[in-house]
Write a structure and sequence with these properties.
Blueprint (H helix, E strand, L loop, with lengths): L3 E6 L5 H16 L4 E4 L6 H9 L2 E4 L10 E4 L6 H10 L2 E4 L3 H15 L3 E5 L5 H7 L6 E4 L18 E5 L5 H14 L13 H16 L2 E5 L5 H12 L3 E5 L15 E6 L5 H11 L5 E5 L11 H9 L1 H7 L19 H7 L3
Parallel strand pairs: 1-11, 1-12, 2-3, 2-4, 4-5, 6-7, 6-8, 9-10, 9-11
Length: 350
């Protein structure tokens, strides 16, 4: 049995995931099932399963949404034609795109309009990459660092007008290699003044590096299709420590713990803390848990504007949906900072 668990902080839900989960919770509390969601609301199997049990139907094509049904667009961002199709098809459309992804979409549109050829560093087939590339497909070239592509085949019309943007959930090591090559090739390269990489992704990677210095094994809680979760595993391994991704406690191979004194535990930005606690319980450290904190996160993203407007119009009905609150008292829409995505999932029976 390991002696100690070092628990990374920050870990788990980021502000964008918090916003998206709470937004979809409101949708299923207000509308009778089914409520539709284009793509998984976040890349975590446990969270998706909670919403499916609550009556959410996740679709990969917007034409699968019946005309007049309520629909939410996922936190990873959607192509412009998907947003337009959803708006024309659904009775209510709420776009739960993370504001940090929206920032990258804006950068792509602006650079393309200004005549730039754009290098987009991201993972082929990832929902966020698909949505971003669709903003300016003729001007944007995907470079997938996991395929060790490099820029040999990237041929801009004007070497003086090249921009580079990135998927928000990449590892720092993935972004920096392509950035360095692009800067060497194109001295006038445009990049955002503030990194495209998500603050939460960066913070969780820094926390993993702290764990790697002090433990024999790192376990990262999260789903296989979560880019930032997989990046945490790679960061730990690059730092020289054994590391594995686990969906939950049941995925832990007992052989991993043989001879291990200290286990580091963290979670991707879409993984619920209940799964983290179950992993710690499964490890059963004889000397308990020590929190390793690298920074505090106080970022907050408000609910999508269309949802806030809808909820204001339906306020009296929404108040009645929460038996713990008396009519006339403010509810979580008015006090959104006061409740969490974990509490939202608990409302749905998580």
């Amino acid at each position: 049995m390991p002696e100690k668990v070092l628990l990374a902080a920050p870990r788990g839900f980021c502000a964008g995931v918090e916003m998206a989960i709470k937004a979809l919770t409101w949708m299923v509390r207000v509308f009778p099932p089914p409520v539709y969601c284009y793509h998984e609301i976040v890349h975590n199997a446990a969270v998706v399963a909670v919403f499916e049990r609550a009556g959410v139907v996740f679709v990969e094509d917007i034409t699968e949404v019946p005309p007049g049904a309520p629909v939410m667009l996922s936190a990873h961002g959607s192509a412009p034609e998907v947003v337009a199709a959803a708006t024309g098809r659904a009775a209510v459309t709420v776009d739960a795109v993370c504001p940090l992804v929206t920032k990258v979409h804006h950068e792509v549109r602006k650079r393309a309009a200004d005549g730039f050829d754009i290098i987009y560093v991201g993972h082929e087939g990832h929902d966020e990459a698909i949505g971003t590339l669709a903003e300016a497909p003729a001007a944007t070239t995907l470079i997938d660092p996991s395929q060790q592509q490099g820029l040999a085949d990237f041929q801009p019309d004007d070497p003086g007008r090249v921009a580079l943007v990135a998927q928000t959930t990449l590892g720092l090591y993935e972004w920096e290699g392509v950035l360095a090559e692009a800067q060497a090739r194109y001295p006038e390269l445009w990049t955002a003044r503030r990194s495209d990489l998500c603050y939460a992704t960066t913070n969780r990677q820094e926390a993993v590096l702290e764990l790697a210095d002090r433990c024999d094994l790192v376990l990262v809680v999260g789903s296989a299709n979560s880019s930032n979760t997989n990046a945490l595993v790679r960061v730990a391994r690059l730092a020289g420590v054994a590391a594995h991704r686990v969906e939950g406690a049941g995925a832990i191979d007992p052989a991993w713990l043989d001879g291990v004194r200290v286990v580091g535990v963290t979670a991707g930005a879409s993984a619920p803390d209940q799964a983290v606690q179950a992993v710690i319980d499964r490890i059963g450290p004889s000397e308990g848990v020590e929190v390793v904190r690298v920074t505090d996160e106080d970022e907050y993203f408000p609910l999508p504007p269309s949802l806030r407007a809808m909820m204001a119009a339906l306020q009296s009905a929404v108040e009645g949906a929460y038996s713990a609150r008396q009519p006339g008292q403010p509810g979580p829409v008015d006090e959104d900072r006061s409740w969490s995505a974990t509490e939202a999932l608990a409302l749905l029976g998580a």
